[in-house]
Design goal:
Helix content: 40-55%
Bound molecules: adenine, zinc ion
Mean pLDDT: 98
Largest sheet: 8 strands, parallel
Oligomer: single chain
CATH superfamily: Metal-dependent hydrolases
Distance between the termini: 12 Å
Shape: globular
CATH topology: TIM Barrel
CATH architecture: Alpha-Beta Barrel
Strand content: 5-15%
Order of helices and strands: HEHHHHEHHEHEHEHEHEHHEHHHH
């Protein structure tokens, strides 16, 4: 099964680029930028990656991203992620970035965007790996801050395919950002939002009704509400599920009790993603493998999960057909 997963063509739709910052690169950038870290070495930092809720992780995630200072740093970060996933047969990726996590530290929006997009362009030219960038608003900040961030992004519409919503979910419902997302829709951005990771089913409903999302990031807690689950299934709303993240942030008690099988049985359009691979212990293949082992997924399930991501990606019909053909060719060669 491991070999099948490794070789299977895949697309990633839920990846925070700042969450792909491995401790080794984090230390190297701290040294390059002369930033003191509260950990003596890589091993002790890794040891601190023990979380009992989303906020425990976010505290370290924001601390970690403070070593990112220059355009080159964002380029190096993105390049390292792209090299990892290219070796895992990921053919397309849609990447979240958190500009407010950087502009609040005095960096220019352009520094962040230019570094990331240079690495994306280079990867596409060198290996055909396609990508899109999704700007996420930090929901613990106020809606005015999000609106200003959206306005900063407007000159770069050609390099940003969509907007999303992340950070501390509880107490920050999607409806707090209705006006920002209305503006983003008017400007032609694709719309996604984290909802139902820690937050209640009502937050998923708000993401659908108030923000008019095209995908739900996570959405696990929607299963608590039968009518909402039916609505998600009937509308073929994609869910970007992140198994190792769910495990490490205690959204599930153990992977064996991950609800992915119920999701598929109930007709939900689930996809598999890594979220913050440097913090949660794995990239795409590790997420697929750990989940398949824990809940007993068949090859057909794995192919369906991967094809769901091809269907849910913000890409042209031509690219979508190419991804499905890559899967056809892979299966024909089995
Ligand atoms: N930011 C980075 N990863 C996140 C997650 N899993 N949930 C909310 N915000 C995040
Ligand atoms: Zn996420």
């Amino acid at each position: 099964m491991q070999a099948f997963i490794n070789a299977m063509p895949k697309a990633e739709l839920h990846l925070h680029i700042e969450g792909s910052l491995e401790p080794e690169l984090l230390f190297a950038l701290a040294q390059r930028n002369k930033i003191a870290l509260p950990y003596p070495d890589v091993a002790s930092l890794r040891k601190a990656y023990q979380f009992s809720r989303l906020q425990d992780f976010l505290d370290l995630y924001y601390q970690g991203m403070s070593v990112l200072q220059t355009e080159q740093d964002f380029y190096d970060l993105t390049r390292a992620y792209l090299q990892k996933i290219r070796a895992q047969n990921v053919l397309h990726t849609e990447i979240f970035f958190d500009p407010q996590g950087h502009t609040s530290r005095g960096l220019a929006f352009e520094t962040v965007l230019n570094g990331i997009s240079r690495a994306l362009d280079e990867a596409q030219a060198q290996s055909g790996l396609t990508s899109g960038l999704i700007l996420c608003f930090l929901r613990h900040l106020d809606a005015d801050d999000a609106m200003r961030t959206l306005e900063q992004a407007l000159p770069y519409k050609d390099r940003i395919i969509g907007v999303g919503l992340d950070s501390s979910e509880l107490g920050h419902p999607p409806s707090k950002f209705s006006a920002v997302f209305a503006r983003a829709r008017e400007e032609g951005f694709h719309i996604v939002a984290h909802a139902g990771e820690e937050g209640p089913p009502e937050y998923v409903r708000e993401a659908l009704d108030d923000l008019q999302v095209e995908r739900i990031d996570h959405g696990n807690r929607a299963l608590e509400d039968a009518a909402l689950t039916r609505r998600l299934a009937d509308s073929a709303m994609p869910l970007t599920i992140c198994p190792l993240s769910n495990l490490r942030l205690c959204v599930v008690g153990d992977l064996a009790s991950h609800p992915i099988r119920q999701m598929l049985q109930q007709g939900l359009k689930a996809t598999i993603n890594s979220d913050d691979p440097a913090y949660f212990g794995g990239y795409m293949n590790e997420n697929f493998s750990a989940l398949a082992d824990a809940v007993g997924l068949s090859r057909e399930d794995l192919v369906l999960l991967s094809r769901n991501a091809f269907d849910a990606a913000f890409i042209s019909g031509t690219r979508r057909a190419e991804l499905h053909r890559a899967m056809d060719a892979f299966l024909a060669g089995m």
